[in-house]
């Protein structure tokens, strides 16, 4: 039985009956249930209809069944669901179209610059235009006279090894990064993003570190935050240490951390004393 909503069969070949599959039926039933919940009294519906906003093309937002408080016939709901499906397909096509630039990176199509990692690994071809558009620092480097005149010019990123550099370029070309790669390289990517002013990547790394902050990771994150320019991340780490002072200070990581970062230990001590003083006053 072909579904009149999700079928791929041309309309001229469909049987003369209005049939839908189980999935579409459940979706329609859920939508209808939602519409019933949105129904209010007639007075409320009348008041709200007078305040319906209109979009740029002049059509009312209430044209969507989900935004209307009036009961909607099944035919209108089905039409809306078809429109939503067409919109989804359009978005998929757009994503596929934009992903062609990613293929250019993977296949090294017309690459015109080399990026070298700091571990003497092989250079990775990239595109000047993309690097300049994603980072003001890269733009300044590529605008330099030495970079313009040398066709085999390579930019060395000393702070990244080969795997980390590959992850950085993957993010620059796609705007995203697999969770396992982000977890593995988050510290190095955060430092690189801060250095080369790749703000979106810096925010992504910062959010990941804050969301996964715990006893075992807080000192590492605090160390990394001290190398960057994010005050929010550093203050969050110091606050976390103060709130969990016993667990952090008596952990195996604290002694080597304190030997390497004496100034951070001073900040932690001062923050702890200020917190203690504040509690006494209260």
TrEMBL record:
Biased composition (Low complexity): 51-64
Record-annotated BTB domain positions: 111-181
Residues covered by region (Disordered): 40-66
Pathway per the UniProt entry: Protein modification; protein ubiquitination
Compositional bias per record (Basic and acidic residues), positions renumbered to this chain: 40-50
Domain of life: Eukaryota
Record-linked SMART domains: BTB
Keyword Zinc: no
Keywords: Ubl conjugation pathway
InterPro entries: At1g01640-like, BTB/POZ_dom, SKP1/BTB/POZ_sf
PANTHER family: BTB/POZ DOMAIN CONTAINING PROTEIN, EXPRESSED-RELATED (PTHR47274), BTB_POZ DOMAIN CONTAINING PROTEIN, EXPRESSED (PTHR47274:SF1)
Job description of the protein: May act as a substrate-specific adapter of an E3 ubiquitin-protein ligase complex (CUL3-RBX1-BTB) which mediates the ubiquitination and subsequent proteasomal degradation of target proteins.
Protein name: SKP1/BTB/POZ domain superfamily
Organism: Arabidopsis thaliana x Arabidopsis arenosa
